[in-house]
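Entry 14. Ran structure prediction on the chain below.
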Amino acid sequence: MKNVLATLTSILLLQAAHAQIKEGTISYEQTADLHRRIPEENQQLRSMVPQFRTTKFELLFADNQSLYKAVEEEPDMTEQNNGGIVLRMGGGAENEYYRNYSSHKSIELRELMDELYLVEDSVRSIAWKLEEGETKVILGYTCKKATGKTARGNDVVAWYCEDIPIAAGPEQFNGLPGLILLVDINKGEIIYVAKVIDKKIDRKKLKAPAKGKKIAPAEFLAKQNELMGNGPVRIVTN
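Output, structure tokens:
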């Protein structure tokens, strides 16, 4: 009888620990394989660029809002030459991604060549396909699988947790019936993965960015493309 009671108690405690989380702070790591878009024959450039780059981020969420920003920055790496090769990683310390899912409002603080811009838009997400029957456990939480493609045509696999019922996720990935804990772009080219789930939040930090020059999304994208060029090699995360 004592063993039965102990088992039931353990089950109840486990269920309580995994009850729905309505607010908190998620720590993420983003890892990019920078060699994936450098041709193998260009060993000189490969020798100049480390293969992997890891950056740390955090996502704050509460009241159907989220804010995603970097907490540890490595300098952007850019290589431009007459051959048109460009390697540029986003996720600068100034970049912030705010979403209000109740009002469907998105405000992004984006840094581009030492200039700060405020990009305001509605909340947008890629056309996800929910994959039935596949699950993955991340940090003790059961996640479901979804797939889709980015605007640039990259394949995306996302794992979302219904126990955290907010349609948020790392950077610009959102729109699923639960918070996204892992994103895999092009089978390992870029991976975002949650490392810590903290049920506490500093609500003073959860606010829309306000500094920077206001700019329309299309105009910002045009500036970004103009500065980065149209070379055969491009690595972009923002």
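Residues 21-235 form a domain with the outer membrane lipoprotein receptor (LolB), chain A fold (CATH 2.50.20). Will compare against last week's run tomorrow.
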